[in-house]
Design goal:
Length: 529
């Protein structure tokens, strides 16, 4: 065991092995290896409780099982609770040209059998015998560990197992916070909303908010953000029209600050579970910023996803138009690929620029940039859309698993020239994806029931046409009536139609008075070690 003081050094030495092992993007994607998947959502647990069914989000990295299409790849996938056998079978049967039994023999599923509200990585670290089993199951000279997001816990697990972590060094996580993102945008010269520095008290936050308003008196709304929020759930909106009596020019700075403090109680929270009492208690722990709310008659929320590979190269992977919800449209619900042609090339340019900045700082693996796009058809410079960078996500996110499912299932390529993804046959691919297909009527549907619906309505992904729907978050369905899916088509219209077919089928099935016949259980064959 390494002493805590040497842990960062050992961690860096392990990551250097990745740089020695993979000298190119092509090698990284196609090399034979052992992959240890830790799908732990290691974020602030109090913030995560705002997400319905968050403990099932460990299933979002199950697209990794598609990597077993390489007949020499082995994979270990660990979860807090065992995965339903039907869910595992579903992913393995997606593999083109690989016998089910061959793929299953190279997959080891492990569970800690612990549903407590702590991160999966913490639970693994508490179980030395489990860690020893993991270590013995890996070919350490050709293994790497991947995760949803990287923290000190993932670094500790990497060091204790002796397995390099393909993820950002936790010491660099500041660049993925709200305030750190703003700093990089400023360094890179990327347009972003006016905003404040990081604050740690309610009073300082009010002062920063008042100062921002004074600098931009025409503002109508200001977004108050916890520095480490998740999927927009840590955001709140301050309506300045309710503070007209203390607007700049009508009151002193001190009066404005006092009025803002009183108005904080009436913030419009994006999470329906949030209160000012709880939100304000998080400010000393997480920090908060004030940021100008970008107004516009027609707005979109595009994003660009990229990665930094071990040799330091930056690769743009995709652009998306995000589907947002919540009271003020700031909560991530899903996405469409690709983003609008009016701005996708600019997203790629800025994604590459931020990627180079992150790579220079030593970052590794996936990141994404979120933007607000405002339609301005009469702009004098001819730019139809104005783009404002909002934040950097230094982790896998809601756009990661849909794109990776497409890439791994089709073995196609992303084209920087036009921002489209092409299958091996040269057909452009499009999709609509969501983590939040949700209805109270869906509660009680077991994974086997979903398989019945998929089979009866022919909703499955078809390898012959490389179109159809790929499902995820299936374990979440019975308890929360919530499901994830990626509908892949050969046109935007086909992708949307396939998505709506799923909605129609689920609504139709759950509206029946008589339940469907029970499924015949499929036997589960484990990996014996």
């Amino acid at each position: 065991m390494h002493s805590p003081s040497s842990q960062p050094d050992v961690f860096h030495q392990l990551q250097d092995q990745l740089r020695d092992r993979w000298q190119s993007i092509d090698q990284f994607d196609r090399n034979d290896c052992d992959i240890l998947v830790i799908p732990s959502v290691t974020l602030d647990q109090r913030e995560l409780r705002k997400i319905r069914g968050i403990h099932y989000y460990e299933e979002r990295l199950l697209f990794s099982l598609i990597r077993l299409r390489n007949p020499r790849t082995r994979l270990i996938y660990i979860t807090s609770q065992p995965l339903h056998p039907s869910i595992v079978d579903y992913y393995l049967q997606l593999l083109p040209g690989i016998p089910f039994s061959h793929a299953r023999s190279r997959l080891l599923l492990l569970s800690v059998y612990d549903s407590s509200c702590r991160s999966l990585t913490e639970k693994i670290l508490e179980r030395p015998r489990l860690m020893e089993r993991i270590r013995q199951s890996l070919r350490l000279d050709q293994a790497y560990m991947t995760c949803y997001n990287s923290t000190g816990f993932e670094r500790e697990l990497s060091v204790k197992l002796g397995v390099p972590l393909l993820a950002v060094d936790p010491d660099l996580l500041q660049w993925g916070t709200k305030s750190g993102s703003r700093q990089i945008f400023a360094e890179c010269g990327i347009p972003h909303p006016a905003g404040s520095d990081l604050t740690w008290t309610v009073e300082d936050l009010a002062i920063a908010t008042a100062t921002l308003w004074e600098q931009q008196p025409a503002l109508r709304r200001i977004v108050i953000k916890l520095n480490e929020g998740f999927s927009g759930e840590g955001n709140a909106l301050l309506n300045l029209r309710d503070l007209a009596a203390v607007c700049p020019g009508e009151a002193s700075h001190a009066q404005r600050v006092a009025a803002i403090i009183q108005q904080f109680v009436h913030l419009s929270f994006q999470s329906d579970q949030e209160t000012w009492e709880n939100f304000s208690s998080r400010i000393p722990e997480l920090g908060a910023i004030a940021e100008a709310f970008i107004e516009g008659d027609e707005k979109r929320s595009p994003s660009v996803q990229a990665r930094i590979v071990p040799d330091g190269s930056v690769e743009v992977l995709s652009t998306h138009d995000q589907i947002l919800g919540g009271p003020d449209g700031q909560i991530f619900l899903g996405c469409r690929f690709p983003s609008d042609d009016g701005y996708r090339r600019q997203l790629q340019i800025w994604g590459m620029k931020v990627g180079q900045s992150l790579a220079d700082k030593g970052a590794l693996e996936r990141f994404s940039l979120d933007f607000v796009a405002v339609h301005q058809p009469d702009a004098p410079d001819g730019e139809e859309w104005a783009l404002y960078a909002i934040e950097i996500n230094l982790r896998k996110g809601g756009t990661t698993h849909p794109f990776m499912a497409l890439a791994l299932l089709t073995n196609g390529t992303y084209c920087l020239d036009d921002g489209l993804f092409y299958s091996r046959q040269g057909t452009p691919k499009y999709y609509v994806a969501s983590d939040n297909l949700e209805s109270p009527k869906y509660r009680g549907l077991m994974p086997n029931d979903l398989m019945d619906v998929i089979a009866f309505h022919r909703l499955n992904f078809r390898s012959t046409t490389e179109t159809g729907t790929v499902f995820h978050l299936m374990g979440c369905l019975s308890e929360f009536g919530k499901l994830g899916l990626t509908s892949i088509g050969n046109s935007p219209e086909e992708a949307e139609e396939l998505y709506q077919q799923v909605v129609q089928a689920l609504d139709e099935e759950t509206a029946r008075d008589v339940p469907a016949p029970a499924s015949i259980p499929v036997p589960f064959i484990g990996w014996s070690t």
